[in-house]
Design goal:
Length: 146
């Protein structure tokens, strides 16, 4: 038996390999497309069908990288605002009883600020409640130890 001689690696152009079109199936037909396009289409399919967060992040990252996302030119003029059930009436009045004047904050931005203030207040109240419970438990334990 004779030994096969190892083949010499032929040098190749990596950019040519990466830019070469790939075959992909679109609408049941084989089609040649650039690697980047195939990659974007694959991520889009995963994001929409499988709700893959990583693919969504990748797509938004690419859109930002190539400046494809534009800020809206006008503020919102309609829509639905859903707020938690336990928002007090005073906060609801502050949100819904206000109509913006010219050069004032957008209703949506203002609502977000008001709700953020309410969430912080609720968080503080819950924290103080927890601390009071802990203090009561410590006092009970100390009185039981005596």
């Amino acid at each position: 038996m004779t030994k096969r001689k190892p083949s010499k690696n032929n040098p190749f152009d990596i950019s040519e390999v990466l830019s070469a079109p790939v075959r992909a199936v679109e609408n049941g037909r084989q089609k040649k497309m650039p690697v980047f396009e195939a990659e974007i289409r694959q991520h889009l399919a995963k994001a929409l069908k499988n709700k893959c967060i990583a693919s969504m992040k990748y797509l938004f990252g690419q859109a930002e990288k190539f400046n494809l996302i534009e800020e809206p030119k006008e503020g919102r003029t309609s829509g639905v605002l859903i707020i938690p059930k336990d928002v007090p009436d005073s906060y609801q009045d502050e949100i819904f009883g206000w109509r913006p004047e010219k050069d004032e904050l957008d209703l949506w931005v203002r609502s977000a600020i008001i709700l953020a203030r309410w969430f912080e207040e609720r968080k503080r109240k819950r924290k103080t409640k927890k601390n009071k419970k802990k203090q009561k438990q410590k006092q009970k334990e100390q009185s039981n130890d005596k």
